[in-house]
Amino acid sequence: MKSAIFSIILTLGLSSSAWADRVKDLASVAAGRTNQLIGYGLVVGLQGTGDGADVSFTAQSMKAMLARLGVGIDGPLSDFEQNASSGKIDIKNVAAVMVTAELPGFAKPGQKIDINVSAIGKASSLRGGNLLLTSLRGVDGEIYSLAQGALTATGIDTSAAGSKVSIGVPTSARIPGGATVERIVETPFERADHVVMNVRESDFTTTTAIVNAINKNFGQGIATALDGMSFAVKAPSDMSQRVAFMSMVENLDVVPGDPPARVVVNSRTGTVVISRNVRITAAAVAHGTISVAIAATNEVSQPNALSQGQTAGVQNADIAVSEPKNPMFLFQPGVDLRQVVDAVNQVGATPSALIAILEALKSSGSLRADLIVI
After folding, report:
1. Domain residues for 278?
2. Residue 279 burial by Cβ neighbours in a 10 Å radius (0-12, 13-18, 19+)
3. Do 125 and 50 fall into the same domain?
4. Are residues 279 and 299 located together in one domain of the fold?
5. Which of 84, 173, 211, 310 could lock 151 by a disulfide, CB 3.0 to 4.6 Å apart?
6. Would you say residue 164 lies in a domain?
7. Bridge partners of 99?
8. What is the rounded average pLDDT of the residues 295-312?
9. For residues 102 and 30, what is the distance between their CA atoms, to the nearest angstrom?
10. 189 to each of 104, 145, 154, 196, 235, how far by Cα in Å?
11. Are 331 and 366 spatial neighbours (Cβ–Cβ below 8 Å)?
C-alpha cells in the first residue's frame, strides 16, 4: 500500500514538474539585448560572376580601395570606369555586397560572430568569393566589428545549352565566425541597483509567477513586477556575486501562464495549428464543394458514298456537375480542441476546407481565438 501511494505521489510530482519551465527560457536580461550591425564591402575571387563594368559603384569602390592600399591609378574616376567598361580593367571577379551581423549582448572585443553577405549589384553568384576587410557599424555610426574571410555559399546557379538549374540563392552567403568584435556596447548591468528582465511573450500571469518564485526562494521584495512584460530584481553590487545570483534566478522552475488562444494558418502549405485553449461557441457548419468536369472527345464526320459531302472534324463535350452531400455538424457551446478536430475529421474536410471553416467561424464570432494567417 505504501509503495502504491509513493508511486502515485512520484507520478504527480513528475507530472507537475514537467509543466514547469526555467526562468531563462521565459525571460531574458534587458541589458543583454542584441544589436544589429551593417557594413558595405567587396567580394573578390569570383569566377566571372561579379558585377562587371556596368555597376559604377563597384568601380568606385575598387579605385578607392586600391588607393588606400597605395596602388595609384592615373586619371580621374571616369577614366577608371571607362577602362573597366572597355575591358582594360576586368572587375567581373568583384562584387559589391552588404554585410550584416547580430552583435550578442555582453559581447567583448576579440569574440567572433557570424555574418551574412548579400550582393547588391549584378553579381550572379558569390560562390567561391572572399570578403575583403569590412567595417560593421551600429545605429550610432560607430564601428563595432571588422569582417573578412572566405564565403560559404550553398546556392548554385548554372546554365548551359539553353538549360538552367538553380538551387538556393547563390547571391547570399555566410561566414561563420567571420567578424571580430572591436567595441563593447555599454549596458547598465554593472551599474544599476536592479537588473531588469523582460518576458519573451508579454503575459501578466507569467510575470507574476516568476516574481513570486524569486521572492519565495530569496525573500520578499527581491523581485518587483513592472508590467506584463518586465520585472526588476535586486542584485548584489559585487559583480561576481551578481553573476552568481542571476545564475540562480534563471535556473528557477516556474509554471508559466497559458498562452492566448490562437489558430495559425499557413495558406501556402495548408498547415493549420490550433492551440489547446481554443473554444468555439454554439455554431452549425456545413461545408461542400461543387465539382465541374468537362471531357472533350474529337471525332470525324465521314459523308456517305456518292453524297458529294466533305469530311469534317467534330468535337463533342460531356459536362458533369457533382456536389458531395457533406453532413452539417454542430458545435456545442464551449467545445475544446479535441471536439473541433473530431468534428472536422468526421466530415472528411481537407486542410483547405478546414481553413475555410475556421475563417467562417471567426467571421461569425463563434471562434474564441486569434486567427493568424501567415
Report:
1. 262-289+325-373
2. middle
3. yes
4. no
5. 173
6. yes
7. 39, 117
8. 68
9. 16
10. 14, 22, 39, 9, 10
11. yes
Kind and range of the H or E run holding 107: none
How many angstroms separate the CA atoms of 98 and 41, rounded? 6
- pLDDT tens-place string over residues 238-285: 999 999 999 999 999 999 888 888 888 887 777 778 877 787 777 776
Pairing type for strands 370-373 and 262-266 reads parallel
Domain count, the chain: 4
Q: Rounded to a whole number, what is the distance in angstroms from the first to the last CA of the chain? A: 54
If you search the block for the grid coordinates 489547446, which residue do you land on? 276
Per-residue pLDDT tens over the stretch 158-180 = 666 666 666 778 889 999 999 99
Percent of the chain with pLDDT over 90: 33
Whether 19 is covered by a domain: the verdict is: no
Q: 304: which DSSP letter?
A: P
Residue 209 CA neighbour count, 13 Å, CB half: 19
Q: Are 54 and 171 in a shared domain?
A: yes
| Residue 16 grid cell | 507537475
Taking the CA atoms of residue 227, residue 233, residue 239 and residue 242 in that order, the dihedral angle to the nearest 10 degrees is -130
- More reliable by pLDDT, 112 or 341: 112
pLDDT in tens, 42-89: 999 888 888 876 667 888 888 788 888 877 665 554 555 555 554 455
Burial class (CB in 10 A: 0-12, 13-18, 19+), 278: buried
Q: Which of 90-99, 232-241, 251-260, 310-319 has the lowest mean pLDDT?
A: 310-319
Cβ proximity of 331 and 365 under 8 Å = no
CA 215 to chain centre: 36
121 closest CA partner among 66, 40, 190, 14: 40
pTM for the full model?
Answer: 0.69
More confident residue, 271 or 347: 271
Residues 208, 210, 214, 217, CA torsion sign: positive
Q: Are residues 269 and 357 in the same domain?
A: yes
Phi, psi of 317 (to 5 degrees): -125, 130
Considering the domain architecture, whether residues 244 and 295 belong to the same structural domain is answered as: no
- Whether residue 177 sits in one domain with residue 84: yes
